[in-house]
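Here comes just one.
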Amino acid sequence: MKEGSITSNRRQRHPPNRITRSTSRGAIRVLIVEAQRLFRQGLRLLLEQERDVSAVTEATDGREACRLVIEYQPTIVLLDIDMPILDVESITKLIHQHRPNTRVLLLARYDEDIRIVTALRAGACGYVLKDTDQTEFLRIIRATARGERILSPLISAGFAHNLPGTVKPPHENHTTLLPSLTEREREILVCTAAGRSNKEIAEQLCVSIDTVKTHLHHIYQKLSVDGRVEAILTYLQTQ
């Protein structure tokens, strides 16, 4: 190539880095599953600064992730919920089918994503938001490796009691809260739990999006939850 020439980004391929087992120094072995190269490389650099953690390999889609889980047997799969080829629920199920001792920790941009719920029900051990502080993120990685149920530090502590497989204190009986919802609120909650967006719910019920948002706000208050994901999990646990 001549000096000063420019090569288009579209022509350059940057395959995920691979690290052999022999070079992995950390006891906590992490497989990073993230489609965005810059963010994936940033996670690797952060993890590799820690003596007890190693990013053993990377994957850019769900199918590749499942193959590498079998090959590298990581302690943790750090899985972005925005995955091409396979959805996050399917990926989580396949990982648990082939490597039940590997823990799946989800990466999400915001906590209102229905895919968090489906992945948690499929066996993910928790999730962390992408804007979490790096010190807290590393603490979460270590806690996940110890077998703890993990949530983003930006999520209310009460959310933990709504996760599948978690025992709730006796006073938290959400079944008694559901009858407090109006018929319209119950309709909207059912649609929300089915994975429909606010726009889709509005179209189905022939109301405005603002009306749907208002009902959801009332639902959150009546169920004593902080958002969409908590409300869905509360509903699902009563079914």
Q: What stands out?
A: The longest helix spans residues 209-223. The CA atoms of residues 5 and 11 lie 14 Å apart. The domain at 174-236 is CATH 1.10.10.10 (Arc Repressor Mutant, subunit A).
